[in-house]
Amino acid sequence: MYFMKMCRILISAIFLSGIGSLVLYGQPERKYIRQGNGDYRDTKFTEAELNYRKALDKNPISHDARFNLGDALYRQEKMDEAGKLFSETAANSSEEST
Q1: What are the backbone dihedrals phi and psi of residue 92, each rounded to the nearest 5 degrees, phi first?
Q2: What percent of the chain has a predicted confidence (pLDDT) above 90?
Q3: C-beta atoms surrounding 90 within 10 Å
Q4: Max CA distance (Å), the chain
Q5: Which tens digit of pLDDT belongs to each residue from 6-26?
Q6: pTM for this entry
Q7: In whole angstroms, what is the distance from residue 38 CA to residue 32 CA?
Q8: For a tag site, which of 19, 63, 71, 72 has the least CB within 10 Å?
Q9: How far apart, in Å, are the Cα atoms of 82 and each of 9, 16, 59, 66, 74?
Q10: Is 46 in contact with 26 (CB distance < 8 Å)?
């Protein structure tokens, strides 16, 4: 009886630690988005741009990274590139909602 209970606890612990790993590694771009957001808040728009680009390298379909990159580019007065990213983000957003 005690052995079976311990086995169930051990199996549950292994299973839950596996799920935790998936959650932590499920969105590798989030680290770069957070760093970019910090840079953006500190008005370091070039550094923010670099971090958002790194996030897109990790996950090319990240809407947050794409939109935030557009915002950082806009603040650097790179209007053409920012406009293109905003348009792509809006188009992808509307495609997913249909």
Answers
A1: -65, -35
A2: 56
A3: 12
A4: 70
A5: 657 757 666 565 555 444 456
A6: 0.69
A7: 10
A8: 19
A9: 52, 42, 19, 10, 5
A10: no
